[in-house]
Please model this.
Amino acid sequence: ESRLGSSPEPPREPTTDADTSFRYDMSHPRRGLAIIINNKHFNPSTQMEVREGSEVDQENLSQVLLDLGFDVRVYTDLTCGQMRRVLRKVAAEDHTDSDCLLVSVMSHGYQGEQVYGVDGLVHIHRLSRYFKGENCKTLIGKPK
Model:
């Protein structure tokens, strides 16, 4: 394919097994599950402002993920404990026939390491740990 104002790309060499060994297998029957957590309203104790317009971002993201073949689940205004429970339940599901898992937490954050539930902060590693190999065997070797 060539683009206006650029020279055509040189012909590509055939790929070998070594070239593709780093790629994930994306040929499972299902693309996978996409979890969207959209925290918009926060308890006054957090001193966080309402995230106006976040529902538009959530709807746009949902549509893109649906277009990509994901099964999309949306959760709104979850506490830290609720976020952990939802993700723990998702990790307990069987993802054998899925290519991958996507989790999007739309919220305020802190120092790149924490996100806000509606009631306070939770470390990202506390949310992602449920999907580590020892906790979610059906996602081993799959992008998360």
Notes: The helical segments are 17-20, 54-67, 80-92, 124-128. The radius of gyration is 19 Å. The longest strand covers residues 30-38.
